[in-house]
């Protein structure tokens, strides 16, 4: 099925960035997924200069050709394939427990990102126990999908998946159809789980452009070293869409892993869903976006509400948008009491609308606003609420504001 086009699954809120009158009042960085510590190394590079090709015995200077021996194109396990185009396929079949990853990009960009990619090649593989947690079955009207194999608790991580295919978004426009097809086929065929990736291609009636269609309908849009990329996660791709999903994902640039986490308790046999659209969109906006971008009409419970309930839902969502903008204006002007009042209204509306989001991100803002005006009692109240909620969804492993909130509590 189709995939979400953005990484961040936050609402439409302040959770990724806030324009501030004072930079030390409210700060939100990107919320990274579970990052695990680096493990074994694969090359004797100097610690302070891990990609110094001059001193490396197993490094690769991509700009000087690929050579004919495996040690000449390390860390790739296959000789890079270019199909007479500026773009090449770079494959490491041993990536993350021999799951493998193929990257379609230019040699220059591959060389420029090796410092980041090398860390992912040597990072400890993280697993979840797939069998007890979920299974892939036929879903009526949706093709294949994932369902819970047992009860999954709110905040529980039930799936960890690693990038299988990464492609520069510019390459389709820079190659001929036959060249692009060959690059994609090579990228998939060189992977240990290439067959599983091909099995995802179920939204096309032809056999000529199976992998192209697969990438279009199952990839996430992300950035790497300021380049737009498409990333395919074979396991995450099994989860279908719902406008009010029971799960969300977090991506780690360090491990190239996507983790799926339960928004709420999920019963055995219940379908596992994520949202392919921004949470703050109105019903018609969601319908148009999903139809144009992903080629299907959403029939989820939220979209199929009675018309009067849809009108009420859209009204709440529009009000949330308006209040968010007002809060930002108050913060920029230093009007923190007004910002507190409006932000509390926004939290109440989010709860009333039933938007399944980690509320700790919003509680965090309340704590910082109260701390700014010197209200210790409410600072402590909201900071503890924020920590409790964020700990449930991964804690400081995912949310950098958790240790910051603890520092705030220590300073009260």
Describe this protein with a few key phrases:
alpha+beta; Beta-clip-like; Serine Threonine Protein Phosphatase 5, Tetratricopeptide repeat; 2 domains; five-stranded mixed sheet; three-stranded antiparallel sheet; 12 strands; globular; SET_dom_sf; SET_dom; SET domain-containing protein; SET_domain_protein; signal
Provide a short characterization of the protein structure.
By secondary structure, this protein is an alpha+beta fold.
What does this structure look like?
The strands form four sheets. A five-stranded mixed beta sheet has the order 1-2-6-8-7. The chain is 37% helix and 15% strand. It has helices at residues 95-98, 107-112, 114-121, 130-133, 171-174, 177-189, 194-199, 210-218, 283-294, 307-332, 336-353, 360-372, 376-392, 401-411; strands at residues 88-92, 101-105, 134-139, 143-148, 157-162, 165-168, 219-224, 227-232, 240-241, 247-252, 257-262, 273-274. The chain is α+β, with helices and mostly antiparallel strands. It contains 14 helices and twelve strands. The protein is globular and about 70 Å long. The chain folds into two domains: 62-271, SET domain (Beta-clip-like); 307-411, Tetratricopeptide repeat domain (Serine Threonine Protein Phosphatase 5, Tetratricopeptide repeat). The relative contact order is 0.14. The longest helix is centred in the C-terminal third of the chain and has 26 residues, at 307-332. InterPro entries: SET_dom, SET_dom_sf, SET_domain_protein, TPR-like_helical_dom_sf. Pfam families: SET. Residues 132-277 form the SET domain. This is SET domain-containing protein. Keywords: Signal.
